[in-house]
Specification:
The chain is mostly helical. It has 10 helices and 2 strands, in the order ααββαααααααα. The protein has a single domain, classed as Serine Threonine Protein Phosphatase 5, Tetratricopeptide repeat, CATH 1.25.40. InterPro entries: ARM-like, ARM-type_fold, Parkin_co-regulated_protein.
Length: about 230
């Protein structure tokens, strides 16, 4: 009987213990500091955890910063088949200085939508009436930017640089010849790559087509193996 009383007494204590803990008031301070959960590496890649005002989400390039501030007067419009640009005003009324240079700098971007906006904006701006008169004075600033684009390690960035160079040459014509030597070194280097050999050759032929006969001598001074069209 004593054993039964002791066991029943223990059972009563075990049942009443949780009830005491519920009614007891919390301590004014925890005896141990609360441990904050460590952020997971995947949290940085999860869009739900990105704070738009956080330091790490701020634009990391000059073009991205200009785009975020509304300094690029066009925006990407997502279409059902393909994307296009929507200009806030007619491209003919937009000053080329400094927008054309800014768009050229954006060719080195590797993130969406900066890649599309810079590439398409540069092309469309050069298509406006009177583009040659507006672009030629900017060549001393455009050529170093295109040179950096053609020197980029990313293949897609290099490809955008080739397209932009051809587009610019088609507009300014022989005016590009005075600056062409600065661009040929990077073209010569990529000419050795089988992946870009044909595309670089076509680019050189386009430069000759738009630049005239003097362009051939300039190209051969840096690329002796070039064959004139």
């Amino acid at each position: 009987s004593n054993v039964l009383r002791m066991s029943s007494h223990i059972q009563i204590k075990t049942k009443t213990a949780p009830q005491k803990s519920k009614t007891s008031s919390p301590l004014p301070c925890s005896p141990e500091p609360a441990i904050k959960p460590q952020p997971k590496p995947s949290d940085k890649l999860n869009p739900k955890t990105i704070d738009p005002f956080g330091a790490y989400s701020q634009p990391t390039s000059a073009f991205a910063a200009t785009y975020a501030k509304g300094g690029i007067p066009c925006r990407l419009v997502h279409g059902s088949v393909k994307h296009k640009l929507q200009w806030e005003c007619l491209p003919e009324t937009v000053p080329f200085d400094p927008l054309l240079v800014t768009l050229a700098e954006g060719l080195r971007e590797t993130k969406h939508p900066y890649t599309f906006v810079s590439k398409e904006g540069f092309r469309e701006l050069l298509q406006v009436e009177g583009a040659a008169e507006k672009a030629i004075p900017l060549l001393p600033r455009l050529v170093p930017v295109l040179k950096a684009t053609l020197a980029h390690a990313d293949d897609e960035v290099f490809g955008r640089g080739l397209d932009a160079l051809v587009q610019l040459s088609a507009v300014v014509g022989p005016s590009l010849n005075d600056h062409l030597k600065h661009l040929l070194t990077n073209l010569s280097r990529r000419l050795m790559d089988k992946k870009f050999r044909e595309r670089v050759t076509v680019t050189l032929q386009k430069l000759e087509q738009y630049g005239g006969k003097p362009t051939v001598a300039i190209i051969k001074s840096k690329i002796p193996t070039y064959c004139s069209i």
